[in-house]
């Protein structure tokens, strides 16, 4: 079965950015910012060596969910969209297949504070609802990762859950976690 992102015409342009499917050639460009301490601190699965990163990056399943953010031909970050099934009772489970998505993002810190992440995530939300027909999007982060949850709020996502010390960080121990979400019918209000 093709990945939902395969159904779209790439690249997609925003006001300042180009979004495109990731390719194996993006390995070095993404490694350049993902290995930085300020990025490494918050990514879900950090890799310490280039060889480990290469193995993880080139995983076909992971690569299928990955989009690249370019600014004037330079890779400045990446986005993920994992299309998922919603929880449902058995009798209606077929109606809950591939109806929601989990969003993720990583931006090169050198390009932070200029609205690029906000612009890219808004474009991905638009793609998810309008082109892919998803009904709900969600994203999670550590409470301590303020730039991430502030981004979720800027793009109009709603904080649905604040959990207490349920999320294990690789160096900081047990931290609070946050979950945000947005429904398709809520999105037009944020355009």
From TrEMBL:
Xref: PANTHER family: GNAT FAMILY, PUTATIVE (AFU_ORTHOLOGUE AFUA_3G00765)-RELATED-RELATED (PTHR43792), N-ACETYLTRANSFERASE DOMAIN-CONTAINING PROTEIN (PTHR43792:SF1)
Organism field: Actinomadura miaoliensis
Domain named N-acetyltransferase: residues: 17-185
InterPro entries named among the record's database cross-references: Acyl_CoA_acyltransferase, GNAT_dom, N-acetyltransferase
Pfam family, one: Acetyltransf_3
Protein name: GNAT family protein
């Amino acid at each position: 079965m093709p990945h939902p992102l395969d159904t779209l015409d790439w690249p997609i342009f925003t006001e300042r950015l180009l979004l495109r499917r990731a390719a194996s050639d993006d390995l070095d460009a993404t490694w350049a910012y993902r290995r930085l301490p300020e990025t490494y601190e918050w990514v879900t699965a950090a890799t310490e060596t280039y060889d480990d990163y290469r193995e993880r990056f080139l995983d076909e399943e992971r690569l299928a969910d990955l989009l690249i953010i370019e600014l004037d031909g330079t890779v400045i970050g990446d986005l993920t969209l994992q299309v998922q099934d919603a929880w449902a009772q058995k009798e209606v489970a077929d109606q809950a297949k591939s109806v929601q998505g989990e969003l993720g993002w990583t931006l090169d810190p050198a390009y932070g504070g200029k609205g690029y992440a906000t612009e890219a995530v808004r474009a991905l939300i638009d793609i998810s609802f309008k082109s892919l027909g998803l009904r709900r999007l969600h994203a999670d982060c550590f409470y301590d990762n303020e730039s991430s949850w502030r981004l979720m709020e800027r793009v109009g996502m709603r904080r649905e859950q604040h959990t207490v010390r349920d999320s294990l960080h690789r160096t900081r121990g047990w931290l609070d976690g946050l979950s945000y979400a947005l429904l398709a019918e809520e999105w037009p209000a944020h355009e």
